[in-house]
Design goal:
Elements lengths: L3 E5 L5 H9 L3 E7 L7 H10 L3 E4 L4 H12 L3 E5 L17
Parallel strand pairs: 1-2, 1-4, 2-3
Helix pairs in contact: 1-2
Length: 97
Amino acid sequence: MVKAIVFTNHLSSLTAVDYFIAQDWLCAIVSTDYQQPQNSPIAELCNIKSIPFYKTGKSDFLTKVEKIFDELKPDIALTFGFSYRIPPELYTIPPMG
């Protein structure tokens, strides 16, 4: 089974997130601490499906995500409509990038 973490803060990712949940691949969502009201369905879906939903700001992004990766040990990290630049070193942590 693949364990994926998805970086997203955009409603357009909802279909993909729902698919990953249905496949039992999704182990967490990482989002920005700036949420737009129309994007709250992502957090609501995670709450309903008991998927961890993390919010992070730019200032603590790297530290917080490294801790999440260390705890959950994802196989892959994916990005869908995420507004922060993801440091390249984060993609070297999961075995599949």
